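Data availability (excerpt). All sequences and predicted C-alpha cell strings are deposited with the supplementary files. A representative entry, Transglutaminase-like putative cysteine protease, is shown inline so that the format can be inspected without opening the archive.
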Amino acid sequence: MSTRTAAPARGRTRTRERLRPLFAVTTILIFWALIAIGAAGFWPVYRDLSFVVAAGGAVLVGTLLAVVAAVFRWRAWALMLAAFLAFLATGVPLAVPSQAARGVVPTVEGLTSLVSGVALGWRQLLTITLPVGDYQALLVPAFASILVATVVGLSVGLRARHGELGAIPPAVVLVLGIAFGPERAAFGGALAGGALAITLIWCVWRRAARRREAVRRLLGSSAAASERSLGTRSLAAALAILLLAGAGSGVAAVQLAPGVPRAVLRTAVVQPVDPRDYASPLAAFRGYLKDGADEDTMLRVSGLGEGQRIRIATLDAYDGVVYRSGTGNADGGSGSFVRVPTSLDRSGDQGQPISVSIQVADYRGVWLPTVGDLTSVDFSGSDAEALRGRFYYDRVSGTGAVLGGVGAGDSYRVDAIEPSTPTAVQLAAATPGSARVPAAKSVPDAVGTRVEEYTAGQSTPGRQLQAVLDGLRRDGYISHGIEPTEPPSRSGHSAERISDLLTSPLMIGDAEQYAVAASLMARQIGFPTRVVVGFVPSDEHPGVILGSDISAWIEVNTAEYGWVSLDPVPEVRPIPEAPPQDPTQISRPQTPVEPPPDEPDPRTTQKTPDTTQQPDAPDDAWLQVILAVLRIAGPIALLLGLLASPFLVVVAAKARRRRLRRRARRPLDRISGAWDEFRDAAIDRGFADIPAATRTEFAESVGLAQSRTLAAVADRAVFSSDVVEPAEAERMWRALRELDNSLDRGLTRWQRIRARISLRSLGGYSVRRLLRGRRTRR
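C-alpha cell line:
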C-alpha cells in the first residue's frame, strides 16, 4: 500500500516544481522558430507590414500568457479565459487597426468586426484577390490562429512531460497558411522542411532532457554548478542547431523554385459571383440606342486619354445563342471573380499607367465600367464602403462586377495600365497565343466560308487575321434598324443571325454582330478571342458618355503581345440598294391543266350512324386521388424509411441470428443456440453481461425459474455423453418462447421496442456468421 500511495505524492511534487529559466528560454526560442515558420505560411495572403505587426503581437501576447500560466500553475480553463480576454483587448489594435480609437483603444465597432472575423474571415479570404493587406477584418483569422497556437503550443512545451508535442499547433498554422494561400507555391516546401527539422531538434533535445532527469533522480545528487553548466551547454547547442536549421532552410528556399501550381482551398471554393447568373451585356446592346436612351448620359469621366475605351464586360463563351462571360468550369479562361482589397500586382505588365475618375449617371447594371488593366479601384461618396465590399474582379478577362449593381451618384477612381497596341506590321507577323477560352458552339458554316474567301492568298496567321478584319470593314454596313429611315437590321448575335449577316447580298448589322462574327472568324484561323462590350467616347461631347457611344470590339490573344484589342466594326457610310435576289426570270412552258377528278356527292355517301352506345369512360377520380396521395406520402414514406433503416437492419440481423440458431444442423447446436438466444435477449433487456459467468450463474442473475431450468438442460446436453434427440431441442425452443414472454412482463412498450433494436447482444456475434450462415460450436 505504501508503494501505491507514494507514487502520486511524487507526481504531485513534480507538478509543483518551479520552471527552470534556462529550460524555459530554450523552449521559448525553439517554439518561436516554429511559430515564425508557421506564420510565414500566411505571408503570401497578406504581404503587408500590418501582418508582421499582428503576428508578432500575437506571439508576444501568447508567450506572456503561457509563461505566466506555467509559473503560477494555472488550470486550463483559467488560461483559456485569460487568452480570450487578451484576444479582445489586443485584437482590435493589432488585427483591425482601422477601427481602433487612436490606433490603440478598442471600439465597439472594432470588437464586433473582431469577433465576426473569427467565423467569417476564413470564407472571405477564399473569395478575395491576394494579397489582402489590412483590408477590413481579414487579419483576424491569422491573428487568432497564431495567438491560439502560441498559447496552446508553448504551454504544452513548458508544462507537459512530452513537451515536443507543442510543435503541433505551429504546424497547424503553417497548413492553414498554405491552404488559404495562393495557387502558386511560395516556398511552401522550404517552410515545411524547416519546420520538420526544428521539430526533430526539439524532440531529440526533450528526450535527452528526460533521460538526464531520470539519471539525476536515480543518483539522487546533482551539483548546482553542474546543472548550470549542463543547462548552458544545452542552450548553446540548441542555438547552434537552430542556426544550422535556419541556414539549411534558406538554402532549400533558394533551391525550390516558386510558382509551382498547387491545389488549395480557393481552387475548390464556389465563388460568390457567377457570371452565368446575369444576362450578357451584349444581349442588351440595342437597349442603349432606342427609346431615347442614345441621348441619355450614362457616365461622366475625367482623365481618359485619346483613343482609350471604357470596358463594361469581356465575353469569352459562345453557345450559339449568346456571348457571355465565363463558363464556370476549369477549362474556361475567365469566370473567376474575386474581391480586390487593395491593389493588383501589375509589375510585369507593359503599358502606360492611367488614372480615370468615373461618376455614374443613367448607367445601370452589375458590370462596373473600367479602363485598361485594373490596378486598383477607389470608391467615394456615402456608399463607398458598401460598394467596396461588393466589388469583385476577374483579372483574366478584366471584368469588374458590383453585387447589387451601381446607380446614379456612385463614383470611383480607376488606376490601371493601358496596354500598348502593336502596329499593323507587328500584327501581321503575330502568331496565335496559348490563352484558354471556352470552345465556341454551333458556329455557322458561313463563318468558315467567309474566312476562306477573305484569307485566300495569305500565308501567315497574322496576315489572315488582318485580311478578315479588312474584309468585314470593307463589305459591312452599319444599321441599327431602329429609325424608320434605316435599312432593316435585326438585333441579336445567335448563330442564325451571324449566318444571315455573312450570307446576305448586303452585310448589314452593327457592332453587336460584327464583333461576334470577327471573333468566330479569328478562332477559325487559330487565335483565341473574346468580345468586349463597352463605350467608345466621342469627341463631340468630351467627358460625357452617352448611350450612343455603346460599342463592341474583339480581343485577340497573340504569342508576342498577349491580348490585343481590335475593332472590326465598319465605318458609318451610306448603304446602297440591295441587289435583287433573282434578277433573271426564266419562262417555263405551260403544261395543260388536268381537270380535277370527279368527287362523289357527300350527301349520297353518308354512312349510317352507329347507334351502338359506347360505354362511358371509367371514372378516374379515385385514381387521381390515389396518385395525389402517393405524390405527397411517397417522399414522406421514403424519408421515414431512411430514418428507420438502421433500426430495421438491427431487427433483421437479430431475426437472421435466431433463424440460424434454430435451424442448426445438429440438435446439440440447436440447444446451445437456444441458450445463446435467451442470454442475448436478457442482455438486450438490460441484464448485465457477467464476464466468464457459467450458464447457471447467469440464470441466477436473471432470477427466473424457467431460466435456471433452461441452463440445466443446456449444461446437460453440452457436457453429457448422451446423444441429444431432436425432440429435446424442439422443447428447448418452446421453453425459450415462454421465457421471452416472461422477460417482457413488467416492461413498457417503449422498453420492449428498445430491447428489439438494442445493439448490446450483437457486439460479440460475428457478421460473417450472419452473412454466411455458419456457426461454430460454443
